[in-house]
Hints:
alpha+beta, Phosphorylase Kinase, domain 1, Transferase(Phosphotransferase), domain 1, 2 domains, 6-stranded antiparallel β-sheet, 3-stranded antiparallel β-sheet, 12 helices, 11 strands, 39% helix, disordered C terminus
Amino acid sequence: xxxxxDMIGHFKVVGALGKGAMGEVYEGRDEGLGRRVAxxxxxxxxxxxxxxxxxxxxxxxxxxxMNHPNIVQIYAIGEHERRPFLAMEFLDGEDLGQxxxxxxxIHPGDAAEAIRQSAIGLREAQRAGVVHRDxxxxxxxxxxxxxxxxxxxxxxxxxxxxxxxxxxxxxxxTPDYLAPEQAMGEEVDARADVxxxxxxxxxxxxxxxxFRKGGQDDHYTAVxxxxxxxxxxxxxxxxxxxxxxLSDLCRRMMSRRPDVRPSFDExxxxxxxxxxxxxxxxxxxxxxxxxxxxxxxxxxxxATEADDDDAPKGMSQKTVxxxxxxxxxxxxxxxxxxxxxxxx
Length: 344
């Protein structure tokens, strides 16, 4: 971590929170308002990069367009030593990625409730014309007050905004939760965030992302290919006694056809009913699960005829190959520079 600055803008720096590929995050304090903030600042090595500055400020603009309890709030955008910074809501809690890593699978009712609240936040983003494009458990924070907040809009795109920053045909995003249309470099809308929520919910309930097998063949391009062509796994076939309605909804969220996925309104309604029936609560509870011998796990390498009509219209083996090649290019290094990963 770089030497701790005394001030960033008019905010007093209290301590360091983390460091990533794009910069640092500090805990700060607005002395005038007596408010704790998280100060996210572009790394010094990127201060001359117009592209990185543009990406960084995109997050600030995306957040400034929204004001909702299920989305992290932004208080100010400024510049410190020719580096842009964001003063954001300080979240006192734990992200769901850390929750899974430390304690394992989450109670299905609690997972439904966490995804429901996340969907409410992302619906607000959709209304503001913003697609997140990097939804994953580590970007869903459970606060000490019992709310789930969507964070890290570093890859967000305004629907009306030109995509000139991203090379044509090259996708951005985390491969474990990546919508097929995003992997193929196509234009995406809020339905890509629904897909990522489905993958996140599968991970929360099972303890592993949907297209990971746990072996040496879990490399980057293999995961991308499975999103594009493999049969979607089902929670009810992997976990003994798993709720059938939640499993079916999760599988539909992960449909390769965007038009098959539920809208945010439908998703929120259905998850609300499931969460209530299963006694869902926040903060979530971690549980032990009994894994079944899953047909879905065995099918993650190849597509099946039953899933063929779920593929996006016009998909071909050539299209899949192009998407995987794009994945190789990003996996070689470009991806790390794009991810806006500001904390460990």
